[in-house]
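Dissemination and training. As part of the outreach component of the grant, students in the summer workshop were shown how a complex can be specified as a set of sequence lines and then modelled as a single object. The example used during the hands-on session is reproduced here so that future cohorts can follow it. Participants entered these lines:
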Amino acid sequence: MAPRAVGEPAPVAHRGPRAGPTPTEAAVRAALRAVVDPEIPAISIVDLGIVGRIAVALDTIQVDLLPTFVACPAMELIRSAVVERIAGLAPRITVDVKFVFDPPWTSDRITDAGRAALRRSGIAPPAGVGRALPVVSLDPGPVRCPYCGSRRTVLENPFGPALCRAIHHCTACRQPFERFKAG
Amino acid sequence: MPASAEGTAGDRAAEPAAEPAADLTAQARAALAELLLALADDEFVIGFSDSEWTGIAPLLEEDVAMSSLAQDELGHSAAFYGLLGTLFGRDPDALAYDRDADAFRHARLVDHGRGDWATTIARRYLYDTADSIRLEALATSSFRPLADLVGKVRREETYHLLHAEAWLERLARAEGEPRARLLAAWRRLGPDGASVLAPLPSEAVLLEAVLLEAGGLELQARWLARIRPTLDRLGLPDPIACAESMDPRLARSGPRSEAFHWLWGEFTSVRRLDPKAVW
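and obtained this result:
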């Protein structure tokens, strides 16, 4: 696979293919901010909270990815984007991406920046759920419309255009919108 | 995918590949395989069957909902087949698409076809509630990759439970035809509800190795206790198990229904047409 940075110029572009030390974990995590969710390109996978442990060894970088939903069809695309992004950072290193369920992804892992990015995309961010199992309540409470900010909104369908999203309607601005599901 | 460097920072069970249950006896491994196959086949068959509603569900919202539910179940089955694959060197696609219909080990409950909407709702309610009891009993499984996966699956199944219960209530409280159809479906499917929790032939080994926390009879009692308040409220009778649905030899094998043979023909059709096809 041709090493190619996604979204931004590789910060190590001056290095030759054989040169340079192994990047740090922080550098890898920072680089992965350029990888976005293919279904919601406004949010990076780091802000979505699906990047778990990153283990940097001499010749291998291992990245754990936490699927939002087990059947998420975007995971393979995200896996190859992660491999490609790290290859852009460190062309000679082996990248090993694993999907893990421990810890489970929960919507609490979405960062504040991620929540803002969702809102800008017309998707209401999820309420907090905690680690309790099973999720205690599915009632999201009053959901704020990402367009007009009103809380006069109703849940239309807990199932939406993607496994991770529900459909709401704002009775104030009469705009249907999506909410990233708590899970 | 570049291959992983063996032993690099693998300090905990990550992807189901890492530690293939090295500490289990051969007997326990065989029992684990039987358990994983039952889980995978249940989710695969109900997922594929419910996906038939895509495009023809009674409401647009339900078109979306059933498609999502089916996608979830197929994803769960892929994960369970995947665990089976990494543990026993089986190809997950071969497990799903290359077996004869009679080799499937799904429970009698999901052997029923999707039928009309009331049948689908009755089946979903019986399945989702029984499955949640089963998943609880697997959450502490000594096979860590399974326990981790189940932790994630349970969070998703919460949405399924909510959906099934809302529809059961809607049909049960309706006058006339909806309730009549639901009662007819309940009479037909109810006796097979317990088959999801029936003891597996290897149950003693599963319990001994703490792969499963409780046996089939205990799980069935927990299930009835869990659903009884809802059934009482809606005036639905307890689903009394038929003899076959609690028999370890019959709950997941024996002659399969015409509906399942038809479904098998559907989901294996591309594979049989061209075994090398990819999509």
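Chain B has eleven helices and no strands. Students were then asked to discuss how this feature might be tested experimentally.
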